[in-house]
């Protein structure tokens, strides 16, 4: 799905950086911001998928420029954020294991990619935002930044930390025209979700074909996955002209999960 421009929310002349942009939520955000006129730096380690994304954006008012980078290279990540007017911290990875068998190196990698890298990216972007007197930081958190699920210690820890980092960024950025918010969806139809189905089945001792309804959506009243384009629209709102007073908060798209 390629979005169309929405009058009144254009970002002509703005530069956006979106991490984890090769697929899923990141790709949807990159296309949505390019549809609003932004020049989008699409950052990911998957070069072929980034090239395909740039092709999908060819007819949009803005542009997609590809940045091939592994976010475990923290110094390079910080440098890549320089000059961004809009920063969307989206990249994520997942390991599903009980704490007592969770590989420590996997825990470290999840926290590096999903919490330390966003800190470094924000650190790299803020000086330019402060200088220009305008900036938008949007952190793609999760319902797991607000609630916990078994077998996801690293992911839940990272997302809870990201919620706190986002609030601190909002407090520090407010005098400089910079807002910072989280978008926290429930389960989204993405490759990351598809890759964890087998691990979820093993962890919960259920057949893989039952994981979606019996595990992932068990606590969600709407009983459906969130679509990446829905998350991208939330990001577009937070970066748009009608959200300049919205900062330090979380926009939740969880199908009613946290209403319980």
Notes on the structure:
- The protein is α/β, with parallel strands linked by helices.
- It has a single domain, classed as Rossmann fold (3-Layer(aba) Sandwich).
- Helix content is 42%, strand content 15%.
- It contains nine helices and seven strands; from the N terminus they run βαβαβαβαβαβααααβ.
- A seven-stranded parallel β-sheet has the order 3-2-1-4-5-6-7, sandwiched between helices.
- It is globular and about 50 Å long.
- The protein starts with 14 loop residues before the first strand and ends in a 7-residue tail after the last strand.
- The model has no long low-confidence stretch (mean pLDDT 93).
Question: Layout of SSEs?
Answer:
Layout: E1 15-19, H1 24-35, E2 39-44, H2 47-56, E3 63-68, H3 74-80, E4 86-89, H4 104-132, E5 135-140, H5 153-173, E6 178-185, H6 191-195, H7 197-204, H8 211-216, H9 228-239, E7 250-253
Parallel strand pairs: 1-2, 1-4, 2-3, 4-5, 5-6, 6-7
């Amino acid at each position: 799905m390629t979005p169309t421009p929405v009058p009144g929310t254009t970002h002509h002349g703005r530069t956006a950086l979106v991490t984890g942009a090769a697929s899923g939520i990141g790709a949807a955000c990159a296309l949505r911001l390019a549809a609003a006129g932004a020049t989008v730096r699409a950052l990911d380690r998957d070069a072929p998928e980034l090239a395909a994304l740039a092709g999908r954006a060819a007819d949009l008012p803005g542009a997609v420029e590809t940045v091939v980078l592994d976010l475990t290279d923290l110094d390079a990540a910080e440098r890549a954020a320089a000059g961004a007017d809009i920063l969307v911290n989206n990249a994520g990875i997942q390991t599903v294991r009980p704490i007592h068998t969770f590989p420590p190196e996997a825990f470290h990698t999840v926290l590096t990619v999903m919490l330390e890298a966003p800190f470094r990216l924000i650190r790299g972007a803020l000086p330019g935002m402060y200088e220009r007197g305008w900036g938008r930081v949007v952190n793609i958190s999760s319902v797991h930044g607000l609630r916990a699920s078994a077998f996801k210690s690293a992911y839940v820890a990272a997302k809870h930390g990201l919620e706190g980092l986002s609030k601190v960024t909002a407090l520090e950025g407010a005098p400089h025209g910079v807002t910072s918010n989280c978008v926290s969806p429930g389960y989204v139809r993405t490759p990351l979700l598809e890759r964890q189905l087998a691990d979820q089945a093993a962890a919960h001792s259920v057949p893989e074909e039952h994981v979606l309804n019996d595990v992932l959506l068990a606590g969600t009243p709407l009983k459906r996955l969130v679509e990446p384009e829905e998350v991208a629209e939330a990001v577009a709102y937070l970066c748009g002209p009608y959200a300049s007073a919205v900062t330090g908060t979380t926009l939740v798209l969880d199908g009613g999960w946290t209403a319980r």
